[in-house]
Write the structure tokens for this entry.
Amino acid sequence: MFAVTAVLAVPAPVSAQAPAAGGQKLVPLPIVLPQPVFEGTPRNLKVTNLEPARYKARAAFLAPEGVKNVARRKWVSSSDANPTIGEPSMLTDGDRTGEEGSYVELGPGTQHVTVDLGAPHEIYAVLFWHFHNSPRVYFDVIVQIADDAGFTRNVRTLMNNDHDNTSGLGRGTEQNYIETSEGRLVDGKGAIARYVRLYSNGSSANDLNHYVEVEVYGRPPR
């Protein structure tokens, strides 16, 4: 059994004056979180390689000044041509709540969604929410960036928790995690790319794939 508590939408205190490499000032990302909808101990989550539960809000993530969510209202496509629920465009509409009518449901097996930023950007963080109205774990969560829509040029993996290579994209080293209203934040390290792709392979609840929102924090290359 794993205890999970509601996570506040308030960043941990951090200095906004910390200098970055090259003299840039780092500031907290302007992240707005949805309200938590559950707390307590998830039942029957028999998931291996599960990271320990946290009992406080995620620390603020620092990035250079001027970095913002460059995925808002950008084009989104999915590997499932006919989602069971919703449309891919909902993933960049700003609705992170996960309530009925705010998420996309893709079919079983390994599926992915791809955000086209419209032009190359320096990517400092990718923040995304699967269905988080009940405690569950999504499997084979992989985040990649690339220069082209087909993901054949300059593909880089920012996150991979597919520890046994079930989805065929390589063995990952990150742990599984329980979905909460915080979403999952992945460090982009300032890598330059135009396309962001997120994979999943069902969840501890069922074999379907759900996405609520994707935010990409970046800026045009300097």
